[in-house]
């Protein structure tokens, strides 16, 4: 068994472990792991009570390393996220007290309940993997992943995330309600003890770092890259969109597809990999025309339409592999 197969087995074991807490959400758990392998951040958007926070806590419990939680409220200050320098009069020196953002896995709970000014405090951390406090820059631990939850905008007390911040989330994922059978299973599992209490680490932070480096080596044939570029170009002229896929979005899609292939035990990307990741990576980067939003047109629908137009038949790569 080679290293990629060992990693694939570990990742699938992690999916199984988290599934003991989150019933019937294997596809969503898989997308979260794909994003983490891509060094990306995840936005979990759904109505209250479907398990967004629980999913993040289960993921963190399955991975060794530090965990930080930020509960976003209307009065949250940027220093509550990044940390603060405290002056000690007896020594005449400042001491930096790190905020929860300096952790391997960070839960930003109900991120859209804080003001845009406070939300923007996350931008440096998300993009550059560092924070600056009082003119001093502090690197974040590696690996670093931010998992944010938010309620739909129609809920009272929520703010719209700035487009610049939305674009820095590799994926936006919705959990949805469980089926009646899944909800029955959930009640049975939680009747006596909470399954989260039994979750133990499956992957250490050092192993995740190795996997993230290996994902970068997953082969992407030019024919696959051409599919990504074609969909992006189509989105920029789509009549239902005010804003299409940015070059950052195209790059994020390719990296997520590499991670999807890696999770499947392959070191090359296929059309199935780009289809699996398309909606989660692309839909939140699009801005639907206002009159189309009134007709309930969504980014997800546009992504499906764009992919359906493009031929996804596999092509033989120059290296001789099927892509």
Automatic annotation (TrEMBL):
Residues 41-171 form the ATPase AAA-3 domain. The keyword Acyltransferase does not apply. InterPro entries: ATPase_AAA-3, CbbQ/NirQ/NorQ/GpvN, ChlI/MoxR_AAA_lid, P-loop_NTPase. The keyword Signal does not apply. Keywords: ATP-binding, Nucleotide-binding. GO terms for molecular function: ATP binding; ATP hydrolysis activity. Residues 234-303 form the ChlI/MoxR AAA lid domain. Gene3D superfamilies: Magnesium chelatase subunit I, C-Terminal domain, P-loop containing nucleotide triphosphate hydrolases. Pfam families: AAA_3 (PF07726), AAA_lid_2 (PF17863). Belongs to the MoxR family. This is Magnesium chelatase. It comes from Paenibacillus crassostreae.
